[in-house]
Amino acid sequence: MRPGGATARLLFFLSFFTSGIHLLFSDTDPRDAAALNSLKTQWQNTPPSWGQSDDPCGAPWEGVTCSNSRITALGLSTMSLVGKLSGDIGGLAELRSLDLSFNSNLTGPLSPRLGDLLNLNILILAGCSFSGSIPDELGNLAKLSFLALNSNNFSGGIPPSLGKLSKLYWLDLADNQLTGTIPISRGTTPGLDLLLNAKHFHFNKNQLSGSLPPELFSSDMMLIHVLFDGNQLEGNIPPTICQVQTLEVLRLDRNSLYGDVPDNLNNLTNLIELNLAHNMLAGPFPNLTKMDALNYVDLSNNSFESSEAPDWFLTLSSLTTLVIEQGSLQGILPAEVFSFPQLQQVLLRNNAFNGSFNMGVSISPQLQLVDLQNNQISTVTLTADYTNRLILVGNPVCTALSNTSYCQLQQQSTKPYSTSLANCGSKMCPIEQKLSPQSCECAYPYEGSLYFRAPSFRELSNENTFHSLEMSLWDELGLTPGSVFLQNPFFNVDDYLQVQVALFPPTGKYFNRSEIQRIGFYLSNQTYKPPKYFGPYYFIASNYPFPDGSGGNSLSSGVVVGIGIGCGLLVMSLVGVGIYAIRQKKRAEKAIGLSKPFASWAPSGNDSGGAPQLKGARWFSYDELKKCTSNFSQSNEIGSGGYGKVYRGMLSDGQVVAIKRSQKGSMQGGLEFKTEIELLSRVHHKNLVGLVGFCFELGEQMLVYEYMPNGTLRESLSGRLTSTTTVMQERLENNIGRTLTKQPIEKGKYIVREARMRLDRNDETHHGLKEIMDPGIRNMGNLVGFGRFLELAMQCVEESAAERPTMSEVVKELEILLKNDGMNTNSTTSASSSATDFGASRDGPVRHPYNEVIAKNKDGNSVDNANRDAFDHNGGATLSEKAGST
């Protein structure tokens, strides 16, 4: 026993002696070391290197930057820190940069001692969960140039003391719960009007009230982004804002502003985006004729005086998006607006445009959508130059021709962009890992969402647009080319473009902590600059799964020596830690399953992480659906059942939907839910309610359907499904002569095989298929061209792809058949398509390919050709609400 006791005493002495030497020769100033060590004891999940020594600068500790033994920067972005920011932070007197962004478990109020950091130049606390008031003491940080407190839970007013930050160029307080008025300098009291070097005023998504003070703006200011959208501001738009001629983005939408728009708004000639929607603005429509740089204009949902289309409809040649919904525009919509070369969308529903509508012959090649729902348009003249979405539902012109595609609500035909994984084949990855589009190897990417607050475009399927975003990300963030995956771009309820982003490590499966801290800082400090047409942005990161687990505090070297004395205690501790780690992992997996719903779904081929592959439907966040149903209020409940309840809701674009919300006990597994929404998104039929989207977040499973008025969702679904099922069953049973019980693919093979066996080309009338033909076709009599149609059909179902004709060949052959039957197809594919769509060609009514059928009205009388010609997509024909008027 004596040798053992001597060894213990020796180890204790050596431990004490080496600790003393370490204190004497530490590379860190004792004041900074004490402050940071104190913070370490209050935070969980600090980097492992923080527990390996007591010398932050000498070891060094990850995320700590030192100069002359003083800590000058603390960067811990996306480290999964848990805890509070105590007053000990004020002990780091030489700190110049503090970045704690994207640590969502940092909570509690900010310490006033932040005001002691007199050398601080950068303060970034974005994407955390801090609460309480913003300390007045931040006004003491005279050297501060970058302040980002966005996406927290701050309440109370904006401190007037921030007006003392004369060097500040970035001020972002967005997405909090701030209240009260905007502080303006009065006597010795400072205000935001003193921030003459500021370029960014981001106050959007708060609860600010009162007016926009005229004193807030002046010609001495350098502002480029002014964002006050999503508040409770009242009063007039101050004319002084038009003196800030450096402005590029002005968002005042979703407030309660009223009165006339300032006459001198035209002075803002550098403005790229103007959004004044959802206010109570009155008077004449604003004059924008000199604002040649404008890409995006939204003046929807105001109370402007009724007028014809403003003159600037003909002059703003840089426009990509024009939105004036629920307006008071009337008269003829000028065709010149559709000729702007960059134009992508024109949204003018719920106005009073009337008379004839003509898009002209010079149409922007980028134009994807023209929405003119609920106007007073009576006639339409179209050409084959425009083949994308045009919506005329609710206009008189659709009264007689409601079955035309333009007189029906149309889903977007193009899928929003997603980075291609086609080169990776069907490779699958374990849970939480995803396929890198560059290497096709499984790895743990750095994930999050980019929110673009004012993009100058609306088209989400343009590959060139998003390729440029991918390239800028990997280039400016120092990543490997091709290592960026983008998914699910959409405009959320705040009218921000939201894009899911995954950044992959250049080698191996993981980023190290230094790389995560660097990338997080680049995205939070705005070091990364996206292509200019994406506009101002912010980023919110997800927790990163470091290979060392949650990154809990490590033991110091002195304690390690002590533990070495008792091996038995060490083993017991390791067992305890192991049990704790397993429990923590289960909790983390559960939390990730709630916050990252796709992580729990096994990947399906090339969908990178199991996200469902949708056709026309999109993902909704829980907050979006909660907002559009008024927090799932009882007044919006329209049905219920064993699965849960159905709610009526209105999306941000005005579309009314039915939201099926599963109750907890009835929810199916994630894989089954994914399979269901993928199937539903691919099913499109006039007798089926369409799937608009889904939500799988925070333990919720919700399906968003088209809203069917005049009845419950159950009744509407039941009616449509019954109709469709009946038609399909009749066709299968009558045509084949028996009930098939095989799978759909086998049914199809059976039909083809049965037809091939019976085929008899010597039978000039029915070619041996009379017994299995649809009676509606068989009984027509003279089947003109049936043999050639049959040959074409048989070619289309050949086993080998090489033996099947292309779609263009099929269309061409059909045109020849129709021409031989006496129909005018105008000799172009688009012409033929349009004739089929609208049931008419320029020279006469379209006839059934097998028989002459005379169209009749509801009284049984023949419909004249003039009315059938009314909607012609190819020539100069016009569509009229009155039969015979062209």
Automatic annotation (TrEMBL):
<keyword id="KW-0547">Nucleotide-binding</keyword>
<feature type="domain" description="Protein kinase">
    <location>
        <begin position="632"/>
        <end position="886"/>
    </location>
</feature>
<keyword id="KW-0325">Glycoprotein</keyword>
<feature type="compositionally biased region" description="Low complexity">
    <location>
        <begin position="824"/>
        <end position="836"/>
    </location>
</feature>
<dbReference type="GO" id="GO:0016020">
    <property type="term" value="C:membrane"/>
</dbReference>
<keyword id="KW-0808">Transferase</keyword>
<feature type="signal peptide">
    <location>
        <begin position="1"/>
        <end position="26"/>
    </location>
</feature>
<keyword id="KW-0677">Repeat</keyword>
<keyword id="KW-0418">Kinase</keyword>
<feature type="region of interest" description="Disordered">
    <location>
        <begin position="822"/>
        <end position="886"/>
    </location>
</feature>
<feature type="binding site">
    <location>
        <position position="660"/>
    </location>
    <ligand>
        <name>ATP</name>
    </ligand>
</feature>
<keyword id="KW-0732">Signal</keyword>
<feature type="transmembrane region" description="Helical">
    <location>
        <begin position="559"/>
        <end position="582"/>
    </location>
</feature>
<dbReference type="GO" id="GO:0004674">
    <property type="term" value="F:protein serine/threonine kinase activity"/>
</dbReference>
<keyword id="KW-0433">Leucine-rich repeat</keyword>
<dbReference type="InterPro" id="IPR017441">
    <property type="entry name" value="Protein_kinase_ATP_BS"/>
</dbReference>
<dbReference type="InterPro" id="IPR000719">
    <property type="entry name" value="Prot_kinase_dom"/>
</dbReference>
<keyword id="KW-0472">Membrane</keyword>
<keyword id="KW-0812">Transmembrane</keyword>
<keyword id="KW-0675">Receptor</keyword>
<dbReference type="InterPro" id="IPR001611">
    <property type="entry name" value="Leu-rich_rpt"/>
</dbReference>
<protein>
    <recommendedName>
        <fullName>non-specific serine/threonine protein kinase</fullName>
        <ecNumber>2.7.11.1</ecNumber>
    </recommendedName>
</protein>
<keyword id="KW-1133">Transmembrane helix</keyword>
<dbReference type="Pfam" id="PF07714">
    <property type="entry name" value="PK_Tyr_Ser-Thr"/>
</dbReference>
<dbReference type="InterPro" id="IPR032675">
    <property type="entry name" value="LRR_dom_sf"/>
</dbReference>
<dbReference type="Pfam" id="PF08263">
    <property type="entry name" value="LRRNT_2"/>
</dbReference>
<dbReference type="Pfam" id="PF00560">
    <property type="entry name" value="LRR_1"/>
</dbReference>
<dbReference type="GO" id="GO:0005524">
    <property type="term" value="F:ATP binding"/>
</dbReference>
<dbReference type="InterPro" id="IPR001245">
    <property type="entry name" value="Ser-Thr/Tyr_kinase_cat_dom"/>
</dbReference>
<dbReference type="InterPro" id="IPR011009">
    <property type="entry name" value="Kinase-like_dom_sf"/>
</dbReference>
<keyword id="KW-0723">Serine/threonine-protein kinase</keyword>
<keyword id="KW-0067">ATP-binding</keyword>
<dbReference type="InterPro" id="IPR013210">
    <property type="entry name" value="LRR_N_plant-typ"/>
</dbReference>
<feature type="compositionally biased region" description="Basic and acidic residues">
    <location>
        <begin position="844"/>
        <end position="872"/>
    </location>
</feature>
